[in-house]
Inverse folding.
């Protein structure tokens, strides 16, 4: 994680994905839409990690799929180095895709069980033959195995011969094969055991430095996102409700949803727990087919007032903070934004030893 | 003591050999107490619980030895009919995935009412009224209307509440919850965990909470038993374990979780992988991954040493570990 020159590599604006709901078999009538993503804006700078957090159904994975062109957006722009890639096709699209790769959540279903590890990691070269000459591919695959910490001799093994953590390394090696500039990682460690999770996170961290990668890191676990991200966006029902640098979000959150989310994270320390205030939200996330008017969080918000039902809050620096520069002055989509410290301030801790990855 | 598991052994016979899933586990839970059993996948935490409940698939599973004393009676010596009477009425289980644990073609009301009809011999109408009452207890809004709904019509958090209602129905003395909040979102996780803890206090039940999440445990448990490769490697009151773990595996687990209040540099990672249960390393099962391992660890299996009156650690070097 370096303080890179601020140069956007991805710019997303007004991104929308609606899935139509239809009725009838012969004559299909559109009766509504699942508004999975409903107006998302963010930028990803070169060399940076942007974390996107949210609960299930908030649209974070749909955003990931649109970034790598597995889904076509209903509206909005995704600019890669200044060029809109949502309307590209054919050769131009293929060229862009080479530079934006994805790492999937489930290392058990995202690897073809009938292909050897060598074929899985080398498959991108079949699609983009210009990336590596044919005679050179095997050597490259072995190099990649080595880079992600697997024995290069495993090249002829099948996915079932590996553990979950090792499979995720294979998925990462495949993502790296074409030397992309951006990696979109959708919950890359949530299927792994705690002791293995740390190994994979350290690997991703190291690769970012070695290969000068930019990450969009999607997860539901706020602690992991904090560990890896430079900036963090919090999503709720298809929109980003708060976005900022990691300490702005974690130490100075101003949106009530972010505050509730942070306060709900279980902390593995009973004493830190007792010092913490807990906000328990009532109810469940509303259905994305029927999004509340005004502020979409108002049905679960303890601060909600009449204005919240009438006026959609914009994602911008709230008026109260606009004149006072400081960590609370970051984008937050709430009419009644207010700073609240939910995570108790950091205590000095002794340096942890390094057990190696 | 409400439940006492003594030196339990469980193995699975497979085509490739015998997998030793549980290798001499002992733990105890009293009424009103919460014991958290912590471990990664394959550590034997769920298999132990299934043996206690008597829902282990046998074959391929086989209980190789030990005792499971429930209110002083050894469950392993009972006949299946006798165990069935205990199951549900005196001990109940909450599963991780409520959607697959509930019957999709029966309304939740019917499933709840069934408990009362079968175990208590109630009439259908009375049982139905009880079902509504229970759904109310676990705070499902509009219980009287929703009693006719099917599992898929509920959200994940609501389904888990129904699972809790089902487990509570006959007011058992012991509840085993196997990863009850793992499949839920954090904001809902907190709601469900709070509800479970509150009901446990109210009914003064014993609760065994099986989980891999050290964070969830910190909130509700009185004691923690950490499992690795089918054995308990550390057992201690919850505050002690977080303050100073007495086993290198526990220490490794605690150090490897990213913390919300700290932005660390590199995460501590336990090297290597959990052992293959068909081929557990000799000596201490953790030795190939342990930063403190010495020669003795590769030859002698450590017993559960007494750290103090309330604590045990299965590490030859627990003193060194305790002192950091």
């Amino acid at each position: 994680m370096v303080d890179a020159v601020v140069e956007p590599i991805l710019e997303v604006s007004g991104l929308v994905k609606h899935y139509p709901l239809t009725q009838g078999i012969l004559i299909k009538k559109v009766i509504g839409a699942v508004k999975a993503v409903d107006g998302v804006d963010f930028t990803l700078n070169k060399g940076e990690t942007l974390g996107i957090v949210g609960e299930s159904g908030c649209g974070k994975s749909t955003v990931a799929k649109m970034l790598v062109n597995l889904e076509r957006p209903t509206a909005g722009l995704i600019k890669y180095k200044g060029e809109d890639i949502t309307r590209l096709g054919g050769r131009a699209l293929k060229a862009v895709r080479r530079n934006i790769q994805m790492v999937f959540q489930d290392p058990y279903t995202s690897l073809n069980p009938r292909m050897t590890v060598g074929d899985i990691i080398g498959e991108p070269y079949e699609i983009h033959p210009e990336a590596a000459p044919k005679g050179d591919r095997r050597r490259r695959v072995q190099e990649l195995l080595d880079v992600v910490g697997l024995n290069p001799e495993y090249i002829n093994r099948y996915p079932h011969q590996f553990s979950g953590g090792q499979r995720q390394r294979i998925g990462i090696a495949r993502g790296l094969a074409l030397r992309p500039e951006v990696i979109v990682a959708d919950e890359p460690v949530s299927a792994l055991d705690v002791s293995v999770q740390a190994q994979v996170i350290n690997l991703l961290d190291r690769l970012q430095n070695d290969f000068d990668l930019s990450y969009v890191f999607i997860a539901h676990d706020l602690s992991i996102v904090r560990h890896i991200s430079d900036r963090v966006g919090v999503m709720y029902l298809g929109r980003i409700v708060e976005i900022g640098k990691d300490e702005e979000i974690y130490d100075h959150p101003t949106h009530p949803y972010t505050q509730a989310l942070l306060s709900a994270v279980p902390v593995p320390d009973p004493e830190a727990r007792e010092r913490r205030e807990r906000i328990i939200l009532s109810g469940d996330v509303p259905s994305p087919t029927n999004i509340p008017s005004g502020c979409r969080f108002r049905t679960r918000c303890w601060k909600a007032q009449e204005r919240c039902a009438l006026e959609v809050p914009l994602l911008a620096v709230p008026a109260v903070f606009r004149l006072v520069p400081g960590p609370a002055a970051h984008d937050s989509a709430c009419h009644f934004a207010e700073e609240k410290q939910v995570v108790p301030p950091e205590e000095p801790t002794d340096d942890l030893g390094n057990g190696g990855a | 003591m409400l439940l006492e598991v003594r030196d339990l052994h469980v193995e699975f016979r497979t085509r490739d050999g015998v997998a030793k899933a549980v290798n001499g586990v002992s733990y105890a839970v009293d009424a009103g107490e919460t014991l958290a059993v912590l471990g990664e996948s394959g550590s034997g935490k769920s298999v132990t619980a299934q043996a206690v409940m008597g829902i282990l698939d046998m074959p391929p599973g086989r209980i190789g030895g030990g005792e499971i004393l429930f209110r002083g009676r050894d469950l392993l010596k009972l006949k299946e009919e006798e165990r069935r009477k205990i199951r549900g009425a005196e001990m109940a289980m909450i599963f991780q995935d409520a959607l697959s644990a509930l019957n999709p073609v029966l309304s939740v009301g019917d499933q709840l009412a069934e408990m009362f009809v079968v175990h208590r011999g109630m009439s259908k109408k009375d049982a139905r009224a009880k079902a509504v009452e229970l759904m109310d207890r676990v705070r499902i809004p509009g219980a009287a209307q929703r009693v006719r709904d099917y599992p898929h019509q509920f959200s994940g958090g609501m389904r888990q509440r129904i699972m809790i209602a089902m487990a509570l129905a006959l007011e058992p003395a012991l509840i085993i919850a196997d990863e009850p909040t793992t499949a839920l979102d954090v904001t809902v996780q907190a709601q469900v965990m709070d509800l479970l803890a509150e009901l446990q206090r109210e009914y003064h039940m014993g609760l065994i909470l099986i989980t891999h999440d050290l964070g969830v445990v910190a909130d509700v448990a009185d004691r923690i038993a950490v499992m690795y490769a089918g054995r308990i490697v550390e057992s201690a009151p919850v505050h002690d374990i977080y303050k100073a773990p007495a086993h290198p595996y526990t220490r490794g687990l605690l150090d490897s979780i990213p913390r919300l209040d700290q932005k660390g540099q590199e995460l501590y990672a336990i090297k290597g992988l959990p052992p293959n249960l068909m081929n557990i390393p000799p000596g201490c099962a953790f030795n190939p991954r342990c930063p403190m391992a010495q020669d003795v660890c590769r030859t002698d299996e450590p017993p559960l040493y007494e750290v103090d009156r309330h604590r045990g650690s299965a590490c030859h070097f627990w003193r060194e570990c305790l002192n950091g």
